[in-house]
Amino acid sequence: MRFYEYQLVMNNTKWAEIRNAMNDCSINTIWRTKDVKTKYTSDWDGDWFYHFKGNYKNIEWLEIKVENLEEKNQVINTLRTINVPGETKGDVIKVYGYVQNSNSVDYL
Length: 108
Fold this sequence. Notes:
By secondary structure, the protein is an alpha+beta fold. It is 25% helix and 26% strand.
């Protein structure tokens, strides 16, 4: 499926790298996603191995919630090694799968 108002900025390989890295991470984080097709935002979840897997093609964004600055820095450093598009807002790190065509995106 194509979303003409959006530009794809991630692929299945990058999502799988995030899944593996966060599953191996020493801190417990929670995450949620938004579906670009249905606009559904999932509930917060803490299981990276079983629940964050499969076909990632409809993920508009992934949000990862952290508890403190130390956790935030650790997650950001992990995501920087993967080189993903995203931003931070308070205690949430957002990774983009799609961006609207008129918007630019920075990499973590």
